[in-house]
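Write out the bound-state structure for NDP.
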Amino acid sequence: MSIVSKPKSDPSSGSSNTKHPHAPARLDLRAAIGGGIFEYAPAPESVRPEIRDKYGLFIGGEFVDPESGGFFPTINPATEDTLSMVGEASASDVDRAVRAAREALPAWAGLSGKDRGKHLYRIARRMQERARELAVLETLDGGKPIKESRDLDIPLAAAHFFYHAGWADKLRFALPGRDPKPIGVCGQIIPWNFPLLMLSWKIAPALACGNTVVLKPAETTSLTALRFAQICQEVGLPRGVVNIITGAGETGRAIVEHTDIDKVAFTGSTSVGKAIAKAVAPTQKKLTLELGGKGANIIFEDASLDQAIEGIIEGIYFNQGHVCCAGSRLFVQESILDRVVDKLTDRMSTLRVGDPMDKNTDVGAINSKEQLATIEQYLATGEDEGAMRHDVCQSTLPGKGFWCKPCFYTGVQPSHTIAREEIFGPVLAVLSFRTPEEAISRANNSPYGLAAGVWTDKGSKIFDVAKRLDAGIVWLNSYNKFDPTSPFGGYKESGFGREGGRHGLMAYCK
Ligand code: NDP
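---
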């Protein structure tokens, strides 16, 4: 059943019977937004970066056509317009890229850490200089709101290069008691949810430690990786140190199976991660996997509720919910469940869904038609299994493109599909608990172990709960905060290995 919640009185705001006769009438937020009182004027991003009609593969420092001559379109998911044609790399193209990376390895690994650091600083500064262009490209190609790509993806991507530039000549201090050496040629495969940021998480530590790389972006979001390849040219990075090859899953498989790759680093779905683990198991290759998640965001009755509501929104509706560490399972202490649902309904009615290039947009387009179909299937399953869907978002969706209004479900049982599987969309499952013990056991009842959030006023409760959660990342009175100094990674079916911080460097050193 799909419902729109009715406004309830908030016990904390006092009864209307006791209101002062001259007090101003309380604004009904939902009615105000529905009636258009708070409608913003459009604020479109005006920059239009140059996008070539066609991009080859970036191998050995230059763009070359794929040997098969095949190209595929990359589209804007908000308009369904084709943005460019991108090369489809075959196994022989992968081989060319691996050979270029192998040739470049001795000179790159032989550079002093200080000189490698200089190259990384140059890349970071160039990314900052071109930040607006990169943000627009990311939004056009992936569908995320411009304010997110502008304020999070691109600054954080540059920050990863700055951070790792700093470590390049200090690896012995980062990993005390060792004599760190590069692993060699790294094959890196990244997903479509944070294209340039995931590229930075992978390339920056690899280069800082003296490795060379062959990286494949996701099929639907290749443009910022290709612009990054141009940045490598612009800053004079030695040829072959970074190779970017585009293509679909088969291209990724060819990287994993190539016999001259020393390490595979993968971020993506658990099912592909498992297949990669099987392929790599009989070889000498090193492997790190950053896979899916079903994060638990736990709200205790003593939490600061207005802050927690912002944390819930940030946790699940940021980046259309295409976030592996999303707080997609909300656990609320039973005594405050009604208040949280009511406040969440109010807050969600203010979310603006629509044109990702508008600076006021909160939730952009779903990344692809396929992902939208997956999300819609989960929405139907949620209702079939008896949960109650709350559609409270008031935006009118554009006529073209791939869109899903943010929503949440109540009446969810831990056994429901929407409480167990990664939806990777703006869909929240709300569950309740009575005691901290119950919160912990319900949160840990998942095959995943990537991220969690805990909201409470009590410091001792925070530390007690946080250390008992099976999650690689636990945010305390916050959610989805990222920093290059902080290691990121999971347990259980969320993968192994860490990216970021000193721990992330270990994954790229012998
Ligand atoms: P995939 O795991 O299929 O894709 C991730 C990357 O791996 C892409 O670059 C993809 O290429 C590549 N790839 C696909 N198949 C293979 C293979 N056999 N060998 C090597 N590389 C391969 O994720 P999807 O894009 O299909 O998304 C499906 C689901 O995965 C989502 O609904 C979500 O639940 C989850 N997901 C989780 C992410 C995370 O950050 N943990 C990120 C993305 C997805 P290509 O894109 O060209 O197919």
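---
Residues 146-167 form the longest helix (22 residues).
The pocket of NDP is lined by residues 189-193, 216, 218-219, 248-249, 252-253, 256, 267-269, 272, 275-276, 291-292, 324, 371, 374, 422, 424 (CB under 6 Å).
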